[in-house]
């Protein structure tokens, strides 16, 4: 077999492959056997029909077609390997010459991974925001803890923001009930939002036994986005009573004896979380600095496929949340054009990052151990809320393990890049990344080298999904 490659663009190649006819012999023999099993010829047992009879009864052309269909994928992948090409999509294959007993020639056009000249990443510099835990952050967490231990008591007064009410909802359109839009005995906190526009306003000032009708738009169902009349009836108004912020509360809600100790623990936990957020921002910042140093051509078919997949994912998530795209864009303050432009930018950045990290992993000769793969599968299962064993079985049965391995390699490549970089916060302090533990604390260098790498891998995997 001889092959030649023509570069059509930095991301597309055309292979011309010439196969000597003797290399088709195994496929021809297999084609004759296959056809012999499919036809009935008087005087011959099934599967025992000689080739010359098949040529006369079925035609040599049918045998050649069967043989070529079998051999093409084999020779195509051999040509890719021979020319060190990595395909990114299905090829467009055309048989250009097929001369019986002489030669087979075909061409294959395919999107390929671009060649990347990775710039030197030793000593990269990047910056991130300071880790800052404000009093407001602490107050928000403590308030949430107080609400977990709050009690509700009935009140004989109109409902106000923050009160809990038990309500019935009925929607009608042109006087006719809207199917599936009735709710009974639902507990709802006034001012919480997240249901239908106008509900909080209608509830404010209503007492138990009162009702009110208002016009709104449904966020799901057949009438999504259309005006309907909603009647809300209040059967109960309850006031939320929060426990006092004192030592007794600290002892009830935690393992601490005093409210000061509880508050300090909240501050520490928030700090650890902010440190992890800072580390993720640092990795993104370092990768962005490196990407700015290199031009990476992107195959448009790959970009288009990823854009379509991302759009479909967004639409599914919105449908699950009972939102339309128009409502989502309104809430985000975006036009459709702005949304599409932002999506296109993020997709292109993600694909470029993947190509770059793949090249770094190759340069650094990074490998993946079985334990790393197992740990990665467990993390991915936890992120998706699935049983680890079931998740692993699904990945193996659907041949997704190579993708999992690639995610780990990219994470380790990014860790190597970040390890050689200098990242400073807004105050000019060097950000500790190498020895950062998964819980946000800083460990000893010898003990925690592997933890950072594993966490980086998991973070990178989440970002690629």
Structure description:
By secondary structure, the protein is α+β, with helices and mostly antiparallel strands. 48% of the residues lie in helices and 18% in strands. The chain has 14 helices and 12 strands. It has helices spanning 25-38, 51-57, 60-82, 135-148, 199-203, 247-253, 259-291, 300-320, 325-332, 336-363, 370-383, 388-397, 401-419, 445-464, and strands spanning 2-9, 12-20, 92-99, 103-111, 125-127, 151-154, 164-173, 176-177, 183-189, 211-217, 227-241, 422-424. The strands form 3 sheets. Strands 6, 7, 8, 9, 10 and 11 form a 6-stranded antiparallel beta sheet that branches. It has a 4-stranded antiparallel beta sheet with strand order 1-2-4-3, covered by helices on one side. Strands 5-12 form a two-stranded parallel sheet. α4 (135-148) crosses α7, α11 (370-383) crosses α14 and α13 packs across α14 (445-464). The chain is extended, with a radius of gyration of 32 Å. The chain starts with a strand and ends with a helix.
Features:
465 residues; alpha+beta; four-stranded antiparallel beta sheet; 14 helices; 18% strand; disordered C terminus
SSE blueprint:
Layout: E1 2-9, E2 12-20, H1 25-38, H2 51-57, H3 60-82, E3 92-99, E4 103-111, E5 125-127, H4 135-148, E6 151-154, E7 164-173, E8 176-177, E9 183-189, H5 199-203, E10 211-217, E11 227-241, H6 247-253, H7 259-291, H8 300-320, H9 325-332, H10 336-363, H11 370-383, H12 388-397, H13 401-419, E12 422-424, H14 445-464
Helix pairs in contact: 1-3, 4-7, 6-7, 7-13, 8-10, 10-13, 11-12, 11-14, 13-14
């Amino acid at each position: 077999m001889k092959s030649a490659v023509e570069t059509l663009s930095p991301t597309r190649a055309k292979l011309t492959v010439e196969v000597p006819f003797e290399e088709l012999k195994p496929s021809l023999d297999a084609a004759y056997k296959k056809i012999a099993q499919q036809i009935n010829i008087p005087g011959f047992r099934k599967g025992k029909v000689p080739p010359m009879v098949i040529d006369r009864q079925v035609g040599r052309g049918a045998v050649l077609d069967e043989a070529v269909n079998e051999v093409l994928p084999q020779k195509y992948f051999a040509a890719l390997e021979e020319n060190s090409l990595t395909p990114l999509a299905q090829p467009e294959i055309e048989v250009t010459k097929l001369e019986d007993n002489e030669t087979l020639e075909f061409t294959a056009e395919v999107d390929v991974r671009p060649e990347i000249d990775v710039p030197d990443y030793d000593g990269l510099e990047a910056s991130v925001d300071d880790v800052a835990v404000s009093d407001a952050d602490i107050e928000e967490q403590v308030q949430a803890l107080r609400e977990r231990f709050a009690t509700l008591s009935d009140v004989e007064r109109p409902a106000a923001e923050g009160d809990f009410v038990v309500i019935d909802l009925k929607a009608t359109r042109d006087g006719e009930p809207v199917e599936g839009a009735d709710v009974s005995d639902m507990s709802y906190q006034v001012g919480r939002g997240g249901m239908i526009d106008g509900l909080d306003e209608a509830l404010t000032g209503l007492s138990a036994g009162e009702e009110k009708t208002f016009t709104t738009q449904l966020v799901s169902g057949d009438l999504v986005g259309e005006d309907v009349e909603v009647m809300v009836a209040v059967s109960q108004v309850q006031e939320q009573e929060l426990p006092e912020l004192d030592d007794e509360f600290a002892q009830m809600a935690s393992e601490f004896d005093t409210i000061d100790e509880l508050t300090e623990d909240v501050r520490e936990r928030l700090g650890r979380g902010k440190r992890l957020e800072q580390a993720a921002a640092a990795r993104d910042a370092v990768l962005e600095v490196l990407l700015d140093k290199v031009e990476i051509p992107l195959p448009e078919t790959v970009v288009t496929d990823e854009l379509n997949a991302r759009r479909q994912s967004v639409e599914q998530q919105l449908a699950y949340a009972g939102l339309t795209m128009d409502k989502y864009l309104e809430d985000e303050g975006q036009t459709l054009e702005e949304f599409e432009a932002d999506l296109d930018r993020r997709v292109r950045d993600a694909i470029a990052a993947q190509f770059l990290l793949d090249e770094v992993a190759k340069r650094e000769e990074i490998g993946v151990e079985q334990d790393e793969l197992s740990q990665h599968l467990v993390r991915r299962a936890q992120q998706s809320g699935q049983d680890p064993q079931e998740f692993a079985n699904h990945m193996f049965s659907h041949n997704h393990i190579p993708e999992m391995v690639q995610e780990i390699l990219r994470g380790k490549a990014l860790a190597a890049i970040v390890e050689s970089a200098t990242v400073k916060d807004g105050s000019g302090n060097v950000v500790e990344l190498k020895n950062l533990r998964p819980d946000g604390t800083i460990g000893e260098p010898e003990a925690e080298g592997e933890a950072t790498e594993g966490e980086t891998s998991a973070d990178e995997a989440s970002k690629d999904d």
